[in-house]
């Protein structure tokens, strides 16, 4: 009998209270080659003109599914899976009826074996428990030589803003006695670890670092950071303290126009099912 891990219980609660935070934070951030990290994923499907069945694993509020539907009208049979009903309700309200949405865990998909051409996933795989089982499910639902394309986290905020934030967050979290919440297999933090995981059932595994730029003022920086998993877990008093200490600590990094130069370090992984 399945019982959710502490991380899964946290995700369910977080996404029920705050659906759509990922697309709100990332959909408007450009990389050097793409409009956004979602667009970088979508671009991998554009060269083909054949009809494809595409599964978005942990689709959240459906931002990527909507983008795919708009970029390839009528060509894709789209399926979205997420374990948060609240995220799926938002996705349902903006997607055409023929997009199939399933509330289930990536570790136990109900999707028919060898029925999917491409699995896409944006900022979700690295959070998941038992990634070996998830990759096993991706491999099972893919047709032979089907592909998986995933954007995963590579680090946190880029540059000096990120270094300062991490330092201040660590201090405030320690004072707040924030308990460690294990999220994801440590192998998902490095290319070598990902390669080891993918090598079991996949070939032609490639990695591309994708940095998306972000130049917020302090209000935008704080608004977005306050919707991250880590800050959400702090007590209200610790959040107030973090905001004050961050504002002081990064003030020397402020640009003349009141903004801060930073971004997010992401990684795109592509692989073909053996
Ligand atoms: C950071 S959000 C990303 C959402 C969406 N892909 C996006 O980028 O806009 C992570 C999503 O993964 C989902 N999730 C986490 N673990 C999952 C699992 N094991 N199975 C299905 N969904 C999961 C959460 O419910 C959440 O919607």
Any descriptors?
274 residues, Rossmann fold, single chain
User: Please, how many domains?
Assistant: 1
End-to-end separation in angstroms reads 31 Å
Which descriptor suits the 3D outline? globular
CATH architecture: 3-Layer(aba) Sandwich
Largest sheet: 7 strands, mixed
Total number of helical segments? Answer: 11
CATH homologous superfamily descriptor? Vaccinia Virus protein VP39
Relative strand content: 15-25%
In total, how many beta strands? 7
Gyration radius over CA: 19 Å
The CATH class is identified as Alpha Beta
Question: Looking across the biggest beta sheet, what order are the strands in?
Answer: 3-2-1-4-5-7-6
Fraction of helical residues:
25-40%
Mean pLDDT: 97
Low-confidence stretches: none
In short:
With 274 residues, this protein is of the alpha/beta class. It is 39% helix and 24% strand.
């Amino acid at each position: 009998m399945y019982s959710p891990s502490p991380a899964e219980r946290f995700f369910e609660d977080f996404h029920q209270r705050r659906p759509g935070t990922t697309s709100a934070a990332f959909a408007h951030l450009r990389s050097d080659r793409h409009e956004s990290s979602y667009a970088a994923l979508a671009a991998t499907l554009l060269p083909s003109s054949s009809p494809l069945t595409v599964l978005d694993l942990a689709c959240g509020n459906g931002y990527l599914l909507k983008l795919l539907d708009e970029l390839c009208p009528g060509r894709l049979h789209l399926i979205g899976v997420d374990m948060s009903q609240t995220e799926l309700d938002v996705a349902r309200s903006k997607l055409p009826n023929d997009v199939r949405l399933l509330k289930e865990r990536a570790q136990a998909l109900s999707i028919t074996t060898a029925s999917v051409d491409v699995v896409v996933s944006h900022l979700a795989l690295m959070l998941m428990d038992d990634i070996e089982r998830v990759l096993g499910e991706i491999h099972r639902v893919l047709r032979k030589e089907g592909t998986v394309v995933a954007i995963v986290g590579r680090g946190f905020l880029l540059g000096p803003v990120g270094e300062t934030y991490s330092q201040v967050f660590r201090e405030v979290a320690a004072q707040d006695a924030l308990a460690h919440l294990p999220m994801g297999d440590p192998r998902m933090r490095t290319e070598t670890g990902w390669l080891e995981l993918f090598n079991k059932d996949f070939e032609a595994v490639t990695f591309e670092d994708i940095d998306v730029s972000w130049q917020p003022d302090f209000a935008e920086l704080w608004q977005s950071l306050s919707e991250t998993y880590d800050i959400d877990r702090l007590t209200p008093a610790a959040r107030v303290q973090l905001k004050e200490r961050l504002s002081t600590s990064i003030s020397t990094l402020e640009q003349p126009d009141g903004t801060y130069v930073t971004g997010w370090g992401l990684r795109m992984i592509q692989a073909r099912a053996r």
